[in-house]
Amino acid sequence: MKSCGLRLCLLLTLTLTLFDYVTCAKILAVFHAPSFSHYILGAKLLRAVAEKGHHVTMISPFPLKDPPKTWRDIVLEDYAKGFNFGNLLNLATMSGYRKEITVNEVGCELIRRVATHPSFIGVINSNETFDLIIVERFMNEAILGLSHRFSAPYIVFSTIGYSRWTNDMVGNPGSTAYIPDLYLHYGNNMTLWQRFHNTFFYCFANLYRHFFTLPKQRSILKETFPYAPPLEDLYYNASLILMNTHVSIKYAVPSVPNMIDIGGFHVSPPKPLPKDLKQYMDDASNGVIYFSLGSIFLSKDMTPEIRDIILRVFSKFKQRVVWKWEDDITFSSPSNVRFEKWISQQDILAHPNLKLFITHGGLLSTIEAIYHGVPLLAIPIFAEQFMNAAEIESLGYGLKLYYTDITEENFSHLVNELLNNAR
Ligand SMILES: *[C@@H]1O[C@H](CO)[C@@H](O)[C@H](O)[C@H]1NC(C)=O
Ligand SMILES: *[C@@H]1O[C@H](CO)[C@@H](O)[C@H](O)[C@H]1NC(C)=O
Ligand SMILES: *[C@@H]1O[C@H](CO)[C@@H](O)[C@H](O)[C@H]1NC(C)=O
Ligand SMILES: *[C@@H]1O[C@H](CO)[C@@H](O)[C@H](O)[C@H]1NC(C)=O
């Protein structure tokens, strides 16, 4: 009798263990922003989930390279085709107000295209089931209809950290008295006037959203998911928010317990650089400056005058320079500057001779540089880069220079400061 009980117990334990082993979730993720840096974050996060055995279906503009077995791509082919941002340099001088309006308009148009894309429609009309929805937060309230369609809770991923984009979803306070808005360029030590303007801008952004953006999102929701509840019921129902930031690189901000900082998760252990580039860096006895303005605004989009100012300044330094330049070289340059069409950024940042990173101040570049302990000179161009640049300077891991302020004197002064100030 006793041994029978024992056997039953064993069997039960075994069965339960087995159950645990075979439990995996079906996850539907949407990272629709047509920007590769947004995609990288989503892909890295979801790959880790899929490698744990969960089934991941990812809707995005890009396919994944060598995907895990439990991975399925639904590629939004050509959906952002024909988008013309005009001259990207105009973005560098655009006011916060204009930026807010532009991003909202572009965001609504993008989500309308996603919602009407045959691949997306295919998923919502299928008889598939999902246990969890993960969406990137990018002007896409209407997409939350997926949560209702599949009766699944949803997680939001924020590429930009704490902001008015996600705070209100979970009732997180974001005081305008000391937290600068993402489209302004204030640090966290604002003057009274800046605090006032920050608050005024917050009101403007919310009113604009209320009267212009949300009505569009509601109509997209209604057309795509006819049986969905009102947008607000979905919007205020997030289960978890994953923040691409970290307490160590951020001002002190309030955070409710279901907002989790995961910033830095996309940083990978360094891989070896291409042989000749590695040699070039190894031989740089005075160190190397790395220059890259990211993947949207390209170095070749700079005006020739600014490019020549930068080259003249570089020629005065002993350091070697590696410059990410995406086009053919049709101009003369000093002998200490080397151009590369594409560089594996994390690997070059990991090189011990790297002394300075001149960047547009995107959040990914910033996090990677902090991880590898490289000081930054931020030249913000668009989106939330002005806020990032102010933060970089406020928190002391770099300096900033506006594109429109680039002069030989200014640029040279800051590069010199960053290379020689031991702080
Ligand atoms: C789902 O639809 C496919 C055909 O589109 C069908 O073969 C399959 O049996 C359906 N599955 C369920 C669970 O209804
Ligand atoms: C809110 O989320 C919960 C838990 O996922 C779910 O049961 C509920 O139906 C959701 N409400 C709406 C309006 O989607
Ligand atoms: C904030 O700025 C004021 C002047 O605007 C300055 O006196 C003060 O020291 C600054 N505080 C910090 C923490 O930087
Ligand atoms: C140099 O930069 C500072 C601060 O960024 C700016 O106020 C100044 O106008 C710049 N000087 C020139 C000559 O552009």
Automatic annotation (TrEMBL):
UniProt keyword list: Glycosyltransferase, Signal, Transferase
Reactions catalysed according to its record: glucuronate acceptor + UDP-alpha-D-glucuronate = acceptor beta-D-glucuronoside + UDP + H(+)
Principal localisation: membrane
Pfam families tied to this protein: UDPGT
Transcription regulation found in the keyword field: no
Gene Ontology CC terms, in alphabetical order: membrane
Origin: domain of life: Eukaryota
Signal sequence interval, chain numbering: 1-24
Enzyme class: transferase
UniProt-listed InterPro entries: UDP-glycosyltransferase, UDP_glucos_trans, UDP_glycos_trans_CS
Entry EC no(s): 2.4.1.17
MF term (GO), any: glucuronosyltransferase activity
Topology in the lipid bilayer: Single-pass membrane protein
Subcellular location: Membrane
Family classification: Belongs to the UDP-glycosyltransferase family.
Name assigned to this protein: UDP-glucuronosyltransferase
Organism phylogeny: Eukaryota, Metazoa, Ecdysozoa, Arthropoda, Hexapoda
